[in-house]
From TrEMBL:
InterPro entries: DUF1761
Keywords recorded for this protein, A-Z: Membrane, Transmembrane, Transmembrane helix
Lineage summary: Bacteria, Pseudomonadati, Pseudomonadota, Gammaproteobacteria, Lysobacterales
Pfam family, one: DUF1761
TM regions (residue ranges): 6-25, 52-73, 85-104, 111-133
The protein's name in its UniProt record: DUF1761 domain-containing protein
Amino acid sequence: MHHLNWLAIVAAAVSAFVLGGIWYGPLFKNAWCREAGIDPNAAPKSHPAKTFGVAFVAALIAAYGFAMLLHLMNTGPELWKTVHAGLMVGFFFVAMSFGINYAFAGRSLKLWLIDSGYHILQFALYGLILGLWH
């Protein structure tokens, strides 16, 4: 896919980390840990480098897939369209998929709101970055 801006895709993936650091850090760390049943002071179950590595690869694949979707939709450089597409993908696909899983797992509405909110904003950021840097 030579028509995609790889620097923008990498920047979009990095933006997921910046957002995640704020979202799951000072904004919602305590609430998320409480709702997920995780002790915020416990040692990680796996090495942080592995966790962050997997998360970055997943964010990069998601940003690449979203860039391809924007190209296939022939969205063009109109910023409102790319951000709108990000909000729609985040809400209708990611958040609703989480909703199904969380319902069957018996997870709380609060946990769903925290996790879904992150991903809605993640894809909106992807749209913003890919729309500005096409």
